[in-house]
Amino acid sequence: MNYPALKIEHLYFRYPGQEDMLFSDLNLEISAGERFGLFGPNGAGKTTLINLMTGLLSCESGNIWLYGNPIKSKDKVVNKLFGFVPQDFSFYQELSPVENLEFFGAWSGLDKKEIKKRTDELMDIMGLQAVKNKPVEKFSEGMKRRVNLAIGIIHNPRILFLDEPTVGVDVQTRHGIIGYLKELNKNGTTLIYTSHQLSEAEELCKKIAFINKGKIIACDDIETLLADNKEKGLEELFLNLTGKDFRNQ
Amino acid sequence: MKLWATIKKDLRLLLRDKVGIILMFGMPVILVVVVTGIQNNTFELLNKNKIALVVCNKDTGAAARQFLQAIDKIGMFNIVPVPAGKSETEIKDHMRAKKILIGIVVPSDFSVQMDVKAKSTAARALSSFGLPGDSLKVSAGNNNSPVTLYYAPVLQESYKLSIEGSLNSALQMVESGEVLKCLYFSINEKPLPDTLEQDMLSSNMKIKEEPLMMGGNKIIPNASQHNVPAWTIFAMFFVVMSLGGSVVQEKLNGSFIRLKTLPTNYYVALLSKQITYLGVTILQAMIIFAIGICVFPLIGLPILHLPSDLIALFLVTLICGWCAVSYAICVGVFARTREQANGFGAISIVILAIIGGLMVPGFAMSGSFQAIMKISPLHWCLEAYYALFLEGGKLKDVLINIIPLLLITILIQLLIFIGLKKKKLI
Prior knowledge:
The structure holds two protein chains of two kinds.
Chain A: E1 6-13, E2 23-30, E3 35-39, H1 46-53, E4 61-66, E5 69-70, H2 76-81, E6 82-85, H3 97-107, H4 112-125, H5 141-153, E7 159-163, H6 171-186, E8 190-194, H7 198-204, E9 207-212, E10 215-221, H8 222-229, H9 234-242
Parallel strand pairs in A: 3-8, 3-9, 6-7, 7-8
Antiparallel strand pairs in A: 1-2, 1-4, 4-5, 9-10
Helix pairs in contact in A: 3-4
Chain B: H1 2-15, H2 18-47, E1 51-57, H3 62-74, E2 77-82, H4 88-98, E3 102-106, H5 110-128, E4 148-151, H6 157-188, H7 194-201, H8 223-237, H9 240-252, H10 255-261, H11 266-295, H12 310-334, H13 338-355, H14 367-373, H15 377-389, H16 395-422
Parallel strand pairs in B: 1-2, 1-3
Antiparallel strand pairs in B: 3-4
């Protein structure tokens, strides 16, 4: 049976102590093999939605499935399905890339041989072979981003969640990361991506959703959205849909 | 595989935390050497060196001479004489200048007073036997000058009392001798022979000293046997400075978010930290014990004697270490920042050490503090170590201390679980 990579049905969520729901009856479906972008202004709920999709937060009601499996925290089957690249550096800065991958690879359920093989591959792909045994704390921002990404994909996940994976990096690193993500997608990995950089979204994503104040206000292929709204670029479309006011989170 | 990878990760992080290593290994080693050295000096001052005693004898009589001989015979004092003509202020100045803590002034009528008192006592004794004692009756004056004891206010009350007791016993000896001489003379009309006086005044009953040891062990308690176990426990609990902070840092930095999305339970991380740091605490104990055995004799401190029951020593060290590690993790779980963990961790360990009897002996504490002492895990660790190091106990002798320690450790583990659940970390 062909399941969508991700399916959200009637999702309700609010943070403890919050009176109003952040998400009320939210529904979303992302097909397998998709390159999907989630965009919205600050405080729109992008990171919260990613955290719900990855089981870091629990919803008040509703359901989230990954390839037909209901999302539950620390569920071995579900956790092996996806990889997560958070916006913050999520590794041990005192350790080298190899040491980080050895640890996170083991926690992802890989054996020693697989970890070694994947580490070698990823160090080549990420251009970190020369510094693979040096502590990450001495790395530049862009190098750290590559380590962050490598850890998220060490176990070859079927879905990869990326929360602003290119923030604060130079053009070369951004180009390299986007190129590799496309490569991953070609090999069957579904990408679910959030960012503020709409130009990057146009380059990477086929389909996008705009989220504002906890609601999905538009969701379709980029070409269709631009055509329907008679806009030339995503930035104009974004401002048209979400307004020009400053957002205070 | 997961546990081993996590232990490797924790070991690597630990080895790269230079400040943590200095705090966990360097600081306790310095503490144990310094405190043992200072306490050993005090111990030798009180037990081996004679106490300097300034003596100003204003009397030329025989009783005053006998009194000073009796003081000398006690063997506790090193008499520093000052001329009889010195005034009170001059004697005090002399004590201050020589840094002598005690001095006595024997009044000029000391021998006369002794004579009067002895005759009066002998007369009462003779009349109670129905013998004539009228010839000895002397009216005792009321304006007698006392023997004056000068002491530095820094002197501990117990120390001052023991000196007073020794001087009183010397005084008593002279007085008893004078009474005996009077009685003997009244009955036999000739002086008391010296040998008989010696026989009558010296005690034939000997005091045999025996430390309270278990199982016939003969370890002599000294500053090393007292301090090394105490500061080893302190060092073990001080892992809170590295481990508590490490737990907080893991919670605060992004790595924890990723760990939550991986198919492995956080208990693996906690188990790894417990194993890694338990190894650290055992290594700390081994290093400090080795210093007590190998380095202490080289720097003039008494050698540390390990207990005869090494299995019991290992078991007690293991359980003390586990309790210390559990406490550190608990602090890390509840603290919100590394500063909170370090600050609270350090202060709480010092407080637990104080109420646990590491810094002030438990027997010197008041009743309420003796009750509070029992909530400190360090108290049970110390009791178990002292049973092994000072009393020569075996495993069966320390069970009474190990069981409460295990119960406290289980309680701390329960608190860790509640903390993790409450903070939604598991």
